[in-house]
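Lecture notes, continued. The same structure-token format from the folding unit now serves as the input rather than the output. Read the line below as a description of shape only.
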């Protein structure tokens, strides 16, 4: 029987912390997960989202990441923090059941998980 190995994307090999605008600077260079609502398309490879606490820029190396998204779509993105308000994405998925209140709650949860990471993440 042959051994089958799957290549795991680099952003999935490490813990992806919950992020929001208020804690992005703390996670500079690290993998994160963010929930947001698309506000505007800046270019084919860059969009602005509102994450419940402020505006975050998502960038990608290919237009395919964002081509299916329209304004006011809710999404979850995984990627690496590049600056205080920018994430370079590796994966984006559209959400059906999110709303603005969900985003606000998620942002508060992200901040709480940072503050109490030893307890919440059970490290």
């Amino acid at each position: 029987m042959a051994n089958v190995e799957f290549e795991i994307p680099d952003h999935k090999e490490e813990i992806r912390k919950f992020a929001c605008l208020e804690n992005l600077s703390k996670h500079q260079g690290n993998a994160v997960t963010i929930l947001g609502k698309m506000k505007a398309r800046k270019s084919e490879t860059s969009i602005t989202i509102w994450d419940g606490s402020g505006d975050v820029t998502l960038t990608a190396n290919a237009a395919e990441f964002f081509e299916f998204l329209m304004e006011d779509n809710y999404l979850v993105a995984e990627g690496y923090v590049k600056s205080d308000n920018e994430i370079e994405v590796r994966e984006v998925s559209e959400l059906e059941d999110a709303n603005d209140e969900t985003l606000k709650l998620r942002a508060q949860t992200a901040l709480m998980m940072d503050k109490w990471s030893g307890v919440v993440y059970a490290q």
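Point for the exam: The chain has two helices and six strands.
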